[in-house]
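User: quick one, fold this
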Amino acid sequence: MSRVGKVPVKIASGVKVEIKEGVIKVEGPKGKLSHSLPRGVSAKIEAGAIILASDESIAPNASALHGMTRTLLHNMVQGVHAPFTKELDIVGVGYRAATKGSVLTLSLGYSHPIDYELPAGITAKVENNTRVVVSGSDKILVGMVAAKIRSFKKPEPYQGKGVKYVNEHIIRKQGKAAGAK
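Assistant:
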């Protein structure tokens, strides 16, 4: 049995959890999320917490999915209470970002600007034209959107130009030695 899966998921105040026919719906002040339980994993609500159990007789891989399901539910409860955020820095002369509605426009040194339509439930805020803050209640979707924005112009190792995470360290290369013989 999973050690992570044994830990109950505490339900934060202001968050409603509903379990019906193998689907868990979580609703809070910052959004609504749902997740279908895998075969062999069951959930119940007791004393303000979600408790998960796995049954190997129903599905042979139930114990493998037990801890992962608990972590996903924990992230759902946290996300609808306080949204997750990822911060990206845009480094380079003339590189900038702007938002208009649900469209993020990036100027990254190409001959054309890149217009990226943000998925539903995700918001992007631009600070000082060079910092993009992606936020939303779904942790997986926030990470995927941040990775997609970073993929438009990954940071290069010589001058560090491109889109990088705020806490990311880019290993720099020296480049050609001037006048080496």
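User: anything notable?
Assistant: The radius of gyration is 21 Å.
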